[in-house]
Amino acid sequence: DLLITIKEMGYDLASKDNWKSAEGKKEKILAEYEKLVLEKPELFDSSRINLDELERSYEENELIKKYGEENGIMIFTGKISEKNYLKKKALIKKYGEKDGMLIFNKKISEKNYLKKKENEKRKKELIGKYGKKFGEAVFNKKLLNGMSKAMVSESIGKPNYKDSEKWYYGEPFN
Q1: Residue 13: pLDDT above 80?
Q2: What residues contact 48, with CB distance under 8 A and at least 6 apart?
Q3: Comparing C-alpha atoms, which of 163, 141, 136 is closest to residue 154?
Q4: By the 8 A CB rule, do 65 and 72 touch?
Q5: Three-state secondary structure call for residue 162
Q6: Is the CB of residue 141 less than 8 Å from the CB of residue 155?
Q7: 67-104, pLDDT tens digit by residue?
Q8: Contact at 8 Å (CB) between 132 and 138?
Q9: Alpha carbons 50 and 56: distance in angstroms, whole number
Q10: C-alpha angle with apex 46: 41 to 51, nearest 5 degrees?
Q11: Nearest Cα to 113, choosing from 86, 95, 93?
Q12: Which of 20, 136, 166, 173 is most deeply packed, by most CB within 10 A?
């Protein structure tokens, strides 16, 4: 009866703040209860209590306690499953908000994201090692006049044949 009275008074039963506020109003709640018993006795008819609704309220409250107000309600209402919420949270923690959400929303696979980051790191290293012009050429496997042997080697690989200062790629001439 107490819960029904408090709910009828407009308190949100899932809110800690509402519970704290109601604690100091015992006399007011009892007076409201007596009034409701006279004016709306059907509220206290136990055959009309929807146990499913009470259970959902408990489940919703537990999810809110566990995941916070916004996320708990999203899980409770089915906007996101608990499993997907945990996956999303883990991806954000691992890769940051922006990249974690890209992976979670399947804009890029985690495998391709890691490959992309690896390529970005490699390109940055090559630019640091050879300068912008030659570093980008090596990264893109292009040859430019003025490249050192090391740059050529790193760009297109080691030659199949060497003859003093000449390098040969592909099949030899007959």
Answers
A1: no
A2: 42
A3: 141
A4: yes
A5: strand
A6: yes
A7: 988 898 899 888 999 999 999 999 999 999 999 999 99
A8: no
A9: 10
A10: 130
A11: 95
A12: 136
